[in-house]
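Researcher: Final request for today, and then I'll write up notes for the group meeting. The sequence and the SMILES for zinc ion follow.
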Amino acid sequence: MQGDHAVYTMTASTPGRELLVSKPDAAERLRAIDQKIDALKAQILAIDHVVRGSLTQRTKVCGNPGCRCTEDSAARHGPYFEWGRIEAGRRVNSQLRPEVT
Ligand SMILES: [Zn+2]
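Model: Predicted protein-zinc ion complex:
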């Protein structure tokens, strides 16, 4: 029952995921999810390591004449998150991937 133990330890720290464990293929899915989470954590840690600057949330107008976003500010696209910081004396903005934010 080593596998069950592994599932238990993974879920113990994250309440709410127990639901997945009741399915037969849950361990497999859980492992895939945990791999994804680990990958994201690694990305976040990598960012934390060098983080300096500001996080900005913005919405965008696409410029497409048929799109509502041009007239309705509530229909703008986004939100997108940008990480702004000073690099080599210049202000740099990076758009962050949704999974990072
Ligand atoms: Zn638009």
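Model: The chain has three helices and three strands. The radius of gyration is 20 Å.
Researcher: Thanks, that's everything.
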